[in-house]
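For reproducibility, we list the full input for the pyridoxal-5'-phosphate complex.
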Amino acid sequence: MNIGADRVKDINLSQVRKMFEQASPTAINLALGEPDFDCPKHIIESLKNALDNNFTHYSQNKGEPKLRESIARKLNKDNDIRVSSDDVIVTVGASEALYSSIQALVNPGDDVLIPDPGFLSYAECVRLAGANSVPVKSSSKNGFKTTVSDVEDALTPDTKAIVINSPCNPTGAVMEKEDIKAISDLATDKEFIIFSDEIYEKIIYGKKHYSFQSFTDNAVTINGFSKAYAMTGLRVGYCASSPEIIEEILKVHQYNVACIDTATQVACNTALTGSQDCVSEMTSEFRRRRDLVVGSLNDMGLDCVMPDGAFYVFFHHDNPVDFVQKAVKEDVIMVPGGAFGSMGEEFIRLSYAQSYENLEEAMRRLEKIV
Ligand SMILES: Cc1ncc(COP(=O)(O)O)c(C=O)c1O
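The corresponding predicted structure, in tokenized form, follows.
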């Protein structure tokens, strides 16, 4: 019997998860895609209070009005995006925002540009919509920052949309404002949609984050609470766009999840409206770790550009699969860059979402096999 539907037959399960599952209990896991910090106490307290106050019923499909108002206020203030709370949908992580928006706006047979190297989910979400993904190749020579000419080179007559991710997983690259503006202008002129995955917005070092939606109406801003507030397991994200686009996305969201859990939405409102010191403290610790890792790898002769955001280092190696396997034997887990697309084939992704001490020890172990 042919169990899987045609739609899912060619879908790949995550390679990164597989690396993860290989890790022995003593291994230092540098394959992690989540902050190692605890979720800040005041957010947890807020979640507990919400449960004590019986926030256990359905919320509106788009999400709790108070949370959507806070998100809209944040988008206006931090991102220069003119939206109201009606233009926001609260989703099950940025993951669901990505899935629902691609399902809602992309037709079978359309071309969707995706970053190469890029986050694994993009190609699979595009495939689930029956569309074709077309790589936008970014080069290590440019620190993997996607430029407007990278996008122009990839455009096809059937391009319906592009997924962009800055700060980027897996490279840590942060795009330049002029490219963000120029790609936005291109989206307006050529009438394609930008799915802008801004989940690492707050984990950025000395650079300013810019949003496509502040330059074009043809954008869906995708963001969430997982990385900024170290709450990956609470599963809250959101998307924002123009009223016409949000109406379409709501159709997929509504019939897929109805709404996300109400108590966690209360806690997310606390996260957004409370002090942001927890975010800046976490980011400055990430910066200290980035400096340690980049310095150590470069000292070992492993070529590595200084990333401006996220918590990944993407370093060059002539034989990455072999090096990653040798590292596993030394109890250090990393991911070969080829998992993120053909442009990543000579690279290795190392996540520094680990304690400073563990990173120092991991560097000592890697030094043995270089
Ligand atoms: C680039 C990128 N986008 C989206 C996500 C998913 O985030 P969420 O936990 O909000 O679903 C991740 C998680 O690793 C990511 O790296």
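The mean pLDDT is 96. The domain at 44-273 is CATH 3.40.640.10 (Aspartate Aminotransferase; domain 2). Both points were considered when choosing residues for closer inspection.
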